[in-house]
Amino acid sequence: MRGKEISVVCDSCGRKMPRNKAVAYEKGVSFSTELHNANDVRFFEKKKVYYCVSCAKHRHIFQRKAEEAERNSRKGRGF
Ligand SMILES: [Zn+2]
After folding, report:
1. Per-residue pLDDT tens for 44-58?
2. What pTM was computed for the model?
3. Which whole-number Å values give the CA distances from 49 to 11, 20, 74, in the listed order?
4. How close is the Cα of 57 to the center of ligand 1, in Å?
5. Cα of 73 to ligand 1 centre, how many Å?
6. What's the CA-to-centroid distance between 71 and ligand 1, angstroms?
């Protein structure tokens, strides 16, 4: 099987590119059930999106990923 690359679409500009050249980023998306009562459950889901390198740079994705990694490592250390 030659050239079987999974292509993804940039979430920002819509450009198609092979997944290994794309920058994966987990975007937090919050939902609400809109019930407006005690059962109103808000939940938070992480949606995986892909950006091409130029959009990732433009949106500071690399910076955000680094910040997130730092935050996670700090959390792991505890108080
Ligand atoms: Zn793009």
Report:
1. 788 899 999 999 999
2. 0.67
3. 6, 13, 25
4. 9
5. 29
6. 26
